[in-house]
Amino acid sequence: MAMVIRVFLFLLVSFYAIPSFAIYEDQVGLMDWHQKYIGKVKQAVFHTQKAGRKRVVVSTEENVIASLDLRRGDIFWRHVLGSNDIIDEFDIAFGKYVVTLSSGGSILRAWNLPDGQMVWESYLQGSMPSKSFLCIPANLKIGKDNILLVFGRGCLHAVSSIDGDVIWRKELASESLEIKQVIQPLDSDIISAVGFVGSSQFVTYQIDAKSGHVLKHTSENFPGGFSGELSFVSNDMLVALDTTRSTLVSISFGDGVTSFHQTSISDLVESSSGMATILPSKFTGMVAIRINSVVVFVRVTGVDKLEVVEKINYPAAVSDPLSFSEGQQAFAFVQNGESKIDITVKHANDWNKNLLKESIEMDQQRGNVEKIFINNYIRTDRTYGFRALIVMEDHSLLLLQQGEIVWSREDGLASIIDMTTSELPVEKEGVSVAKVEHSLFEWLKGHMLKLKGTLMLASPDDIVAIQGMRLKSSEKNKMTRDHNGFRKLLIVLTRAGKLFALHTGDGRVVWSLLLPTFRRSEACPNPTGLNMYQWQVPHHHAMDENPSVLIVGRCGLGSDASGVLSFVDSYTGQELNSLNLAHSIEHIIPLPFTDSTEQRLHLLIDANKRAYLYPRTPEALNICQLELSNIYWYLIEADKDIIRGHALQKTCNLEMPDEYCFNTRELWSIIFPSDSEKIIATERRKSNEVVHTQAKIVDHDAMFKYVSKNLLFVATVSPKGAGEIGSATPEESSLVVYLLDTITGRILHRVTHHASQGPVHAVFSENWVVYHYFNLKAHRYEMSVIEIYDQSRADNKDVWKLILGKHNLTSPISSYSRPEVMVKSQSYFFTHSVKAMAVSLTAKGITSKQLLIGTIGDQVLALDKRFLDPRRTLNPTQAEKEEGIIPLSDSLPIIPQSYVTHSLQVEGLRSIVTIPTKLESTSLVFSYGVDLFFTRIAPSRIYDSLTEDFSYALLLLTIVALIAAIFVTWVLSEKKELREKWR
């Protein structure tokens, strides 16, 4: 009987002790979620002519080209180009290609319209930077090839649409020449290129489309000069603005003869005031002018015949003209209301006729309309209908049709600039927010599916249903805290000035707020968000108080622009308060102090190096004054290659006394020689990182980590190596790394990597820093690690001194004393380029660390810190093996199962954020770029709880089997004993 029990226990332990380095396919989506976005749309082209999938192709400010389903807004396909490969223009060519022009007119690509596969790519040569544009003639052929006309880098190119070969190239740009447009009249082999030389000379070229030869070149001076804006009204006439922006200049250039005619805007529009701008529209025989808040449409019937046909007051956006039938054009404009928008579609040939006029209720948190694109369709009664694609102030994208919002996309989440987290409220006693089952049948059905899955009898459809049930689990998506700390709110700030609160359970938007303080106004014409900080985090006993966050921004682009502050409730998304500051904001310092209301103190440094305390309360002022001598800060002037350390002094001497303002004094400065070193990267420890122990056992001896929060990692590179990889030879470039004390400015460690170059990505944790760079001599990427230990505490390792009390552990430690440190370092080859780096954080700092590396493939790789131990040797000793030291190798391993993003890609990856949970073994990971990805990781595996996929049913079956075995064994044993007694 005892033997049977031992066998069953061994099998049970063996079953549950099998190590798992990855997850199963049906576990994807249980602890993680992935959301795809495209960003704020710049251009849109509809493709609805043929039967089948109706789609709209868009390019965005996040450098994305994508094809969207017109019915639902889903992404058919998309491509995220590099940050240096900006999309200039794109269009749909010949009904089967999407042609994109990027990189300042130097790269032309053709993508297959149905599936987005690249058909060809062409690199266009040129001698000088210039404006670039793309022209797709309707019927211009050379032989059997349709050609594309591209102007970029000062040259006009004719490119074959079949394979992207350049048929001919003509250099047109010279110094101060700017070509504005290329025109190809129908049924003509002669194309015209027009532009300006300087601000007063108008030039035209007539070019043979088949050979590229210049047939005619004209140049005419205009005494008034041009502002540079123009609009073509026909193939031989355009309208431009003079330098004063008060006169319209009609330019006729047909038959090689150029003539000018001036018309004062005040003669066309009475009581017009303000600077005029020409809208970049393509109306036939018409030009659109914006004067302040009015758009004026002017019909041009001759070089000297201009007449106003319509004035529209306060339009938010005007669309490009749409040809919806032969010779007929329509355009749309939208006007913002208090809680709605008004869309009007007008007939460009009959201004008294509205083809469409609708009012649509709109969420005020989306802001105003910024862009509109229209498309037509044929209704069942054979009349023309119109749909509108609009881009809102918060960067969201909506499709409107028949007075309703067909679909919407929250593409503002593609431009996150900062994020923080907030705990959810505590679930009150007697109140359950869990979802109940709809009926007994659904309850039984769910449990039957789970039983089939446990017994491995589930079909593929059943597995999908089980996974869907897991994803909809109420326990995961509750709006209250859980005892493990997995459920939180991710509060993100986007470039549009909008806040989103995302639930960690499934990534849904709990609330969103378009910050009123960060919207354009007369007082703040160009608001920009900077950072977000925890403002008020109530203690765990303050259950009735809501936490809040602080959003810091500027009313302008320069560092000397005045600052703005906004305070937002983390649970409701309501703006509690906002401040328009009289001073600028150059640097923000969150202080480690809170007042009695749990508000955290912050110092805002302006351009004059004065520090302003927030919150502006007497209690906060008293706290700050008590700690005034212990507050230090530093400023990195990367453009000047200088780092300066500062301390606070007494209050400022201003015209208007301000007791919450403090002067600062410079304590130290480090000036890197500009002819040999340039700052390219800095990094410091996270303020919320917890270090479990300062001691580390090395060779049976205790070493103390140097865990000062004042350490700063600085990487510099020689000026010739500051460019892209390969811009300098190995002899010309070297990388220098420093560890600085920001209190004294003392350099604790310096190391030089010869023949190395940036970019440098680094992560700083506890007493070590890991950084990534490129080795020019080896032609490979490298990762180096530096660990720093405190030698001043070496005497504390003597146990007898501790017992006899012969040393003083209570002696004060000063940042001004010279530390005795010991440094260990090592370098390894790494096969990937890196976009971002982070380190796992846990609640107590006990769990071993993992590096989270954002690779060039937009995936997140988890790398055990033990691989980057500087004590690794080829043949570790027995003591080192007991410590877990891995034998030395020249390269870091890439284990496919270590990708926390699995097979998914976080397109445009910019940052990785790690968040500790209450469960010490687990850390939350949130990575964002154009896409969002969230998951949970366990660097040392889950050792303090059962996993979510733990099979309770199998455990129950095992217990039942054990009880049955015990009972059977007991019966057999009793029978055996009875037989022995009868002998």
Entry summary:
By secondary structure, this protein is mainly beta. The protein contains 8 helices and 65 strands. Among the domains are: 417-424 and 481-584, Beta Barrel (Thrombin, subunit H); 434-477, no CATH class; 586-671, no CATH class; 681-804 and 817-830, no CATH class; 833-947, no CATH class; 951-982.
The radius of gyration computed from the alpha-carbon positions, rounded to a whole number of angstroms, is: 34 Å
Helicity level = under 10%
Name the shape in a single word.
Answer: globular
Strand order of the largest sheet: 44-45-46-49-48-47
- Sheet of most strands: 6 strands, antiparallel
Counted by DSSP, the helix tally is: 8
* DSSP strand content: over 45%
> What structural class do the secondary elements suggest?
mainly beta
The beta-strand count equals: 65
Q: Would you identify the regions where 5 or more consecutive residues have pLDDT less than 50? A: 1-21, 430-438
How is the secondary structure organized here?
Elements: H1 2-16, E1 33-35, E2 41-47, E3 55-60, E4 64-69, E5 75-80, E6 87-93, E7 97-102, E8 107-112, E9 118-123, E10 133-135, E11 141-142, E12 145-152, E13 155-160, E14 166-171, E15 177-183, E16 190-197, E17 201-208, E18 214-221, E19 226-234, E20 237-242, E21 247-252, E22 259-264, H2 265-268, E23 276-278, E24 286-291, E25 294-302, E26 305-313, E27 317-318, E28 322-325, E29 328-336, E30 340-347, E31 350-361, E32 369-378, E33 384-392, E34 397-401, E35 404-409, E36 416-423, H3 440-454, H4 460-471, E37 488-494, E38 498-503, E39 509-514, E40 528-536, E41 548-554, E42 562-569, E43 575-584, E44 587-594, E45 600-605, E46 611-614, H5 618-626, E47 632-637, E48 642-651, E49 661-671, E50 678-683, E51 695-698, E52 701-705, E53 711-717, E54 734-741, E55 747-754, E56 756-765, E57 768-775, E58 780-790, H6 799-804, E59 821-830, E60 834-839, E61 850-855, E62 860-864, H7 878-883, E63 911-916, E64 923-928, E65 932-937, H8 952-982
Antiparallel strand pairs: 1-65, 2-3, 3-4, 4-5, 6-7, 7-8, 8-9, 10-12, 11-12, 12-13, 13-14, 15-16, 16-17, 17-18, 19-20, 20-21, 21-22, 23-24, 24-25, 25-26, 27-29, 28-29, 29-30, 30-31, 32-33, 33-34, 34-35, 36-37, 37-38, 38-39, 40-41, 41-42, 42-43, 44-45, 45-46, 46-49, 47-48, 48-49, 50-53, 51-52, ...
Helix pairs in contact: 1-8, 3-4
